[in-house]
Design a protein that fits this description.
heterotrimer; A mainly alpha; B mainly alpha; C alpha/beta; A: mainly alpha; MetI-like fold; 74% helix; elongated; B: mainly alpha; 77% helix
């Protein structure tokens, strides 16, 4: 019991508390977006165009008279889903490829690493843009594009862990006990990957969210009419002088999420790092 | 040292080939006849036939790739569907704008972040350090395009101090050029500067724990010499690697920032190309940016032994 | 600028160089790291400061230079250097003392020189700061100092980076750069601990030679009682932040007053009574013509990769129930040997027979059965236990392949193995990081013995442990060996430990056997020049009555080769010249020689 309590103590640190609270608020927003928004985010209402924040429309309305708060809430769900799916995709493919490359070694490893190196030669957003250019704006196309852009990072990390753990004395001791390669990987190498994967998973979540917003801002992410934070910002730039609030709230939502992820990620890394050094 | 440089150079060759292969494959994945994709659906059938021959489309895929690589080596990246001009020329014209934005950002970021990170590490856990780290985490959490919008709102719309749209080359009119560059550079810079500061801080902290720092102090060196002569070069080495990687995110960020500030740069060119399904442009810009990025990391790696002579390949 | 200059010459001569009085160092408000410590170092003396890890000996030295780790501060007491109070000295004045008056040498030669600066720049730095000498003069003196520490090619050394040198070389460079300023006091923190035995002796003797010339007093911080016995005049023993005992080395060694000092001396490894006798019968393991090579990839892809022979034509037997000690320095191939027996390393040439069966061809279940008969205990108790598994799971791992062991029985066996090594079985759900180094090593031993092996390979199994813990673990191994009855291949660089555990000794030098024989024969009548050099390098402490010990210097001179043979060519470094042969000096005592002169000509 004593140990259990210790292992969750880091959640009480200010970084973790603020980060989790911010993420909680955004999560709540997404739940509102999924369950019940004050207004329909897609219905146009020309008499309510470009209204400033008021009691009826807390965060004002856009150029088509759509309620900003409702759109923000629905967009939260979209962004979070896309980011989570991206991270999941990158983690699963990256771990599989990285583990195989690291464990098998030799030519397989060399070819995989050359491919990874080449994929990493494209700045993440550019690779995603290139893929989006081919498949066109699609909700799950974004996941695929971002996932492919982030997977090489995972491959590198997992491969690195596998290579370093493979040389550890405790792995040799396990082999000396007559254990098979598969058993050694499952019982010693895979657990060693969990800490670093948690850390880069968190960082990737922030990165995916940011890149998804940028893609949507460019009109090449999740296609309209589905509201996205990036898309809302992009629309807002046309009305900066008449309706500046439109440019503020979606950006604030993105930044709050990123801040939450970064703070939480920092706390997580502080917690996991001492063990990671033992890798 | 020479062997190292040479070997590092050799290592980039397969990377560049695979980069080219990826771009080639990507463009072949576009649905439809590759020739039509490259010249646009409305082109003259004669032109279409000409392109088909030029791309060796009737040959096996490997030959097609070879032909394509050959054209690439000659600098022939095809013609833009939008404007009809050669892609390479069009890119090079726009490259100057992007280069200015990115170079100004990277230089300013380094000038601020290196001393800031060193200072924060030296004063670890003081109020100064905590304040700086708070500022850092705020800055990395603000996307550059929103920062750009906020800057436009503040300096352009509210205060009217700086132009928010358009571009004047600094080679034509330096002062005006700087005025046009100021906001985009600032927007692009803050996040990268912040993460660079954080990296410099953690790298310095790592170095300050080492015995040769204690040894330097045990020789009687004053703190500023300990920091500048002994900690700085060693702490900078890992940051140098990050600088190479940062160039990638700056180039990526430039794509979005150029759209926000309507700068006629490479990023804008790419985005317009995607809108217009102008695939020769998309292909060319992707290749150029990836090539630049690989090159920059090559330079970084070749410079690396200057800061850490232990490095071996 | 009062202090030093104001003291009259006669007074300065009698004044201690360093007088520490009631020194207390704390981290914040927690319990003191050093409590009321007194220490006096006289001009020109070599003062040994002995203690185990965590005793505060390094902290004490750093407190003198005010280079304490962040968070630690002197909270009481005084430190006077040549009569001048240091605890109240302003920072700027303190910096003037660091270097020219008080020098410091660190343990890790790999970490104490700045990797990014050339040696010349690092040596000149302090000179430029503390003297008014010009660049040429500084350079001249740097060269002179490098020559004094016997660096080959000092000119080139100045222009090189630290990573181009081995540990021993770097430690000499370090000494040169610190002693160049001719400090009155040198704080030497484990200056030779990280080095190989022969180099250790060389470096410390160079250091003491220069120090004697310059009249520098030395505080020699070490965990090695032998070093203190051989080189120090007076000594101080520290434990958990307090001074236990201080006085003349001879007095403390021969008649320690404090129980802790006595327990330290009692923990010194020493020769057991009885030689283990002659061991006959069939060997458990036979190694025949074993060679192991590593390939280092070429630096350019079209060049040929270089091959390096870690072991070259090794043959020996391990008898049942015996402990065969494999002695060698780093690079001797001793670890490769252990790994080859366990089938962990790269492919081998030659044969390894377990009970007459070649282990190379064995596969599948048979291989598992075979592996269960041979177990290993590694050096680093931190790296050899998976940090993510409980110690119960770690120990149980060895039982996975034992047929017919059920879950309950497995738990029972784990508990038995843990209590056998002195660990409470109730701890089996703890993680390795919750254990001390000694406890972790016990867990490592439990993992090895749980399968009741016939051969245990102990690869530097006690090298990372403190003296008292080391003694306990050695005792434990001895006891287990008696009870379970396994043979032990004990790989180590420490001759003291060898003396304690070995029945037979095998000496490895650069991948080849140079001498093998019964313990007493090899230690008391060594024939190979390398064995002699090793024995001469290590000061040996032998227990006297009354809980003390005395320094026994060995002046070993290898006897001339038997007629028709010449000195081992491998030792002289020419492996291509004459043939190499083993000569049986006495029954079971084999020594490597070059074969007869006829073949040389």
């Amino acid at each position: 019991m004593r140990r259990r309590r210790e292992s969750f103590a880091w959640l009480a640190r200010p970084n973790a508390v603020v980060g989790l609270s911010l993420l909680g608020v955004i999560g709540l927003l997404a739940i509102i977006g999924a369950a019940a928004t004050p207004y329909d985010p897609l219905v146009l209402s020309y008499e309510d165009r470009l209204e400033a924040p008021s009691r009826e429309h807390w965060l004002g309305t856009d150029q088509f008279g759509r309620d900003t708060f409702s759109r923000l809430a629905v967009a939260a769900g979209t962004s979070l889903t896309v980011s989570v799916l991206t991270v999941a995709f990158a983690l699963v493919t990256g771990t599989l490829v990285g583990a195989v490359a690291g464990y098998v070694g030799g030519w397989c490893d060399r070819i995989v690493m050359m491919l990874v190196e080449a994929l990493m030669a494209f700045p993440g957003i550019l690779l995603a843009l290139g893929i989006m250019a081919v498949i066109g704006p699609r909700r799950y196309g974004v996941v695929l594009a971002l996932g492919l852009a982030y997977a090489p990072n995972v491959v590198r990390v997992v491969r690195g862990v596998v290579l370093s753990v493979r040389e550890k004395e405790f792995v040799e001791a396990s082999r000396a006990l007559g254990n098979s390669g598969a058993y050694t990987v499952l019982s010693h190498v895979v657990p060693a990957c969990i800490s670093p994967l948690t850390v880069i998973g968190t960082a990737m979540f922030g990165g995916a969210l940011l890149t998804e917003s940028a893609l949507s801002f460019l009109g090449l992410g999740v296609p309209p009419p589905a509201p996205t934070w990036g898309g809302m910002l992009s629309d807002a730039t046309l009305y900066m002088s008449v309706a500046p609030w439109l440019s503020v709230f979606p950006g604030l939502a993105i930044s709050a999420t990123l801040l939450g992820v970064n703070l939480f990620g920092d706390a997580l890394r502080d917690r996991l790092d001492p063990r990671m050094r033992g890798l | 040292m020479l062997t190292y440089t040479f070997k590092r150079l050799l290592m980039t060759v397969p990377t560049l080939v695979i980069v080219a292969m990826l771009v080639f494959a990507l463009m072949r994945l576009v649905p439809g006849d590759p020739a039509a994709v490259m010249v646009g659906d409305l082109a003259d059938p004669h032109v279409l036939e000409e392109v088909r021959r030029n791309l060796a489309l009737d040959e096996p895929l490997l030959v097609q790739f070879g032909t394509w690589l050959g054209n690439l080596a000659k600098g022939d990246l095809g013609h833009s569907i939008m404007t009809g001009e050669p892609v390479l020329e069009a890119m090079l014209r726009r490259f100057g704008v992007t280069a200015q934005v990115v170079l100004f950002s990277i230089v300013l970021a380094v000038l601020v972040a290196i001393p800031a990170g060193l200072l924060a590490a030296w004063r670890q856990n003081t109020r100064l350090d905590l304040a700086m780290m708070f500022a850092v985490i705020l800055c990395v959490s603000v996307p550059s395009f929103w920062m750009g919008i906020l800057l436009i709102l503040l300096f352009g719309v509210q205060l009217g101090w700086l132009p928010t749209i358009g571009y004047v080359s600094i080679t034509e009119d330096f002062a005006a050029g700087i005025r046009y560059l100021a906001l985009p550079v600032l927007a692009l810079l803050l996040g990268e500067m912040a993460s660079l500061t954080r990296m410099m801080r953690s790298s310095t902290l790592e170095v300050l724990r080492l015995e040769y720092i204690t040894h330097a102090r045990a020789k009687g060196l004053p703190e500023h010499l300990v920091l500048l002569r002994h900690a700085l070069p060693n702490a900078f080495a890992p940051v140098l690697t990050l600088l190479g990687l940062m160039l990638g995110s700056l180039l990526g960020g430039a794509v979005v920032i150029e759209t926000v500030f309507t700068l006629p740069g490479l990023g804008r060119f790419l985005v317009d190309g995607i809108y217009a399904r102008d695939y020769p442009v998309v292909q060319g810009t992707l290749l150029l940016v990836a090539g630049l990025y690989v090159l920059a990391n090559l330079v970084v790696d070749v410079l690396y032994p200057l800061f850490d002579p232990r490095v071996r390949l | 600028m009062s202090g030093v200059a104001a003291i009259p010459a006669q007074a300065a001569a009698t004044l201690p160089v360093l007088a520490i009085d009631g020194l207390t160092v704390r981290f914040g408000r927690s319990a003191p790291a050093i409590e009321r410590a007194d220490l006096e170092i006289r001009a020109g003396e070599v003062h040994g400061l002995v203690g185990e890890s965590g005793s505060g000996k390094t902290m004490l030295a750093r407190a003198v230079l005010r280079l304490l780790p962040p968070g630690a501060a002197v909270s009481a007491g005084s430190i006077r250097f040549q009569g001048q109070e240091l605890t109240t000295l302003p920072d700027a004045a303190m910096r003037k003392l660091r270097g020219p008056r008080i020098g410091m040498v660190f343990q890790e030669p790999m970490m104490s020189l700045n990797p990014a600066l050339r040696i010349g720049a690092q040596m000149a730095e302090a000179m430029r700061l503390h003297t008014t000498l010009g660049g040429d003069e500084i350079r001249r003196r740097s060269l002179e100092m490098l020559e004094r520490v016997r660096m080959p090619d000092p000119e080139r050394c100045l222009a090189s980076y630290p990573h181009e040198f081995s540990g021993g070389m770097r430690q000499r460079i370090m000494l040169a750069s610190v002693l160049m300023l001719r400090p009155a006091l040198l704080l030497a923190d484990e200056p030779t601990t990280a080095l190989d035995v022969l180099i250790q002796q060389e470096v410390i003797e160079i250091m003491l030679e220069i120090v004697r010339d310059f009249g520098t007093a030395v505080l020699l911080i070490t965990h090695d009682l032998g070093l203190v016995a051989r080189y120090a005049g007076r000594m101080t023993v520290m434990r958990k932040g307090t001074i236990v005992e201080t006085g003349e080395v001879e007095r403390i060694m021969s008649a320690p007053r404090e129980p802790y000092t006595r327990s330290l001396i009692a923990a010194l490894p020493g020769r057991r009574a009885g030689t283990g006798g002659t061991i006959g019968g069939n060997p458990l393991v036979s190694v025949r013509n074993l060679s192991v090579s590593f390939t280092k990839p070429a630096r350019l892809p079209w060049r040929k990769p270089t091959r390096f022979k870690a072991l070259d034509d090794i043959s020996f037997d391990v008898m049942r129930n015996e402990t065969l000690a494999v002695v060698g320095e780093s690079g001797s191939g001793k670890t490769t040997l252990g790994r080859a027996l366990l089938k962990l390393g790269p492919a081998v040439e030659g044969r390894i027979l377990l009970d007459g069966q070649d282990i190379a061809g064995v596969r599948g279940d048979e291989e598992r059965r075979m592996r269960r008969r041979m177990q290993v205990v590694f050096q680093d108790p931190y790296a050899s236990l998976d940090p993510r598994q409980t110690i119960g799971r770690i120990v149980a791992e060895g039982l996975r392949h034992v047929p017919g062991v059920g879950r309950a029985e497995r738990r029972e066996k784990v508990a038995a193995a843990l209590s056998e090594v002195g660990i409470d079985p109730a701890w089996s759900d703890r993680y390795p990081h919750e254990l001390s180094g000694g406890q972790r090593q016990r867990v490592g031993i439990a993992r090895a013995i749980v399968t009741e092996p016939e051969l245990v390979i102990a690869d530097e199994a006690v090298s990372a442990l403190d003296l008292t813990v080391q003694a306990q673990v050695l005792d434990l191994l001895q006891r287990l060996k008696g009870r379970i009855g396994f043979s032990c291949l004990f790989i180590t660089h420490d001759l003291g430990v060898v003396e304690q555990v070995a029945d037979r000794i095998l000496v490895l030098y650069r991948g080849r056997i140079v001498e093998i024989g019964m313990r007493d024969a090899v230690l008391d009548a060594p024939h190979h020049p390398y064995t002699c050099a090793l024995l001469n390098a290590v000061p040996s402490l032998v227990p006297t009555g009354s809980g003390g010990c005395a320094l026994r210097e060995r002046h070993c001179e290898p006897p001339p080769p038997p007629p028709g043979l010449v000195e081992d060519p491998h030792w002289r470094g020419d492996d291509d010249g004459v043939g190499r042969t083993f000569f049986e000096i006495a029954p079971g005592h084999l020594v490597a020689y070059g074969s007869s002169r006829d073949r040389e000509t």
